[in-house]
Fold this sequence. Notes:
Radius of gyration: 21 Å
Distance between the termini: 76 Å
Low-confidence stretches: none
Order of helices and strands: HEHHHHEHEHEEEHEEHHHHHHHH
Oligomer: single chain
Largest sheet: 4 strands, antiparallel
Shape: elongated
Helix content: 25-40%
Structural class: alpha+beta
Amino acid sequence: MLRAATLSEAVRERARALGFDRVAIGPAAPPEHGAEFERWLDAGYAGTMEYLARGRAARRDPETLLPGARSVIAVALGYNQTADADGWAPIARYARGRDYHDVMRPRLEALGEALCEMAGPETRSRACVDTSAVLERDLAARAGLGWIGKNTNLLDQALGSFFFIGIVLTTAELATDSPLPDRCGSCTACLRACPTQAFVAPYVLDSRRCISYLTIEHRGPVAEELRPAIGEWAFGCDICQTVCPWNRKAPPTSEPAFRPSGPLEPLEELLALDDHAFRARFRGSALRRAKRSGLLRSAALVLGNRRDTAARPALTRRLEDPDPVVRDAARWALDRIGAE
């Protein structure tokens, strides 16, 4: 046990040296909320994210991903920043700098390699940054990285919820931390603030109504009854986080890669991007996840919600767009602004 404790402390030191803000260690047993995850999928709350259902069995047992896994190293890296910096207000805070996968994965792999060097050549590890079939949030919560809030985000007393989660599964036996208690209490600020009423109940999110899902993961037109509620969000949404009391004192990110490299163009200019220009403009950015179709669709909806007559020319040009989803959004936005 002493060896496990010593190894765990060395892992923590290495994680902090790699720039992670928080580190916690837990067991690699099946997550406690596996059954709830299954019911969530069966209820259809994942929307069109079929990849979640394809890996549903693997997500219920980390050993499926790494046979012999015994421990989980969970890390947090904050991304908080000024809400309206340089015109980036329509974009969720996490997506304003470099794609977090490109920032997190090399560090997690370095952490896993360092662990294997310390624990011995028989040790194996695997890094996960929300692209692997594992329930990162549940494993991180059990490790004591934070508690799961009513808005389904992981919360930490110091970082709030504006942080990325990274996981390293390992076959090494490590001394584990204790889970944190739920500190949301009777607060329901996040549930009440959601413009689309995406929360079915505390701790249960219907992705099909979530603005982040609609502007990032969803392909095709957004349901007309939800378009006005999207408001000013062209990519993602931070509302249920910004109203959370635990985020009032969340520190700004210490990671330069998560900060914007420059101002964001007006949405009218983004509407002019063709496929090649879109890929070039957002190379290395999480915004590429929405593809040109999704970003221009959402940008058009935002302009329609603003009812800004100055956006008419840009929207009118998109009535001839080769993408029917973009044409539909532009037509709706022009109708909302009103004819000249």
